[in-house]
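hey so i finaly got around to running the thing on 2-haloacid dehalogenase from Hymenobacter gelipurpurascens. pasting the sequence first so u can double check i didnt mess up the copy paste, my clipboard has been acting weird all day
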Amino acid sequence: MPAPASSVLPRPKVLLFDVNETLLDLSKLKRAVPKAFGNKHAFKQWFGLLLQYSLVDTVMGAYHPFGQIAEAALDMTADMLEEKRLPPAKKQELVGLLKQLPAHKDVPRGLEMLLDAGFRLVAFTNSPRATLDEQLRYAGIIHYFEQGLSIDTEQLYKPHRYAYQAALQALDIGPDEALLIAAHGWDVAGAHHAGLRSGFLARPGQTLYPLAPLPTYQGKDLPTLARQIIAGR
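ok and heres what it spat out for the 3d tokens, dont ask me to read them lol
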């Protein structure tokens, strides 16, 4: 829930935005992955494995780029669903769709509202920096952002605490000067653990982690969330 109406929160200097699913619509992948396997459960299985094994790398102290984990997760998806593994070219085609995703329809308006209110906007992703730039250009929203940050600099995936701290260091700000906006409960939880405030964008099918603190703000779309952040309550 938003902060009580009687309280006004300090204004953050920078808004950090998660990218996949928060800003970008994954519907294209949600159609393509099940079609490739001939199995309606394939996307959820694959995307869950992609997130899980990026964290496995981080916990082990290893690192592979997000796209490489995505391809490996397609093989794991095939094995777990007892389907035939996809040929390398098909895996590359599917993972390549991560660079060809449109923005959610509410995103441009929400970003405009926040820019007009004087906030600095920064994209912050688990994808490599080159992928991030391609994604934002394809979606037509790169011009809203002051810069993009990727975890590939430190090679620690969100929600590792230091991934957020490294972003703050790159921006030369403290945790109390930043607010993370994400559609994933694990990202919101990670930001809070690192001392940042957060805004949860409640995309369909997404939920908060019940054992983590509540986000500072919540909204069903970005303009709704933007109005709360601008008001500071």
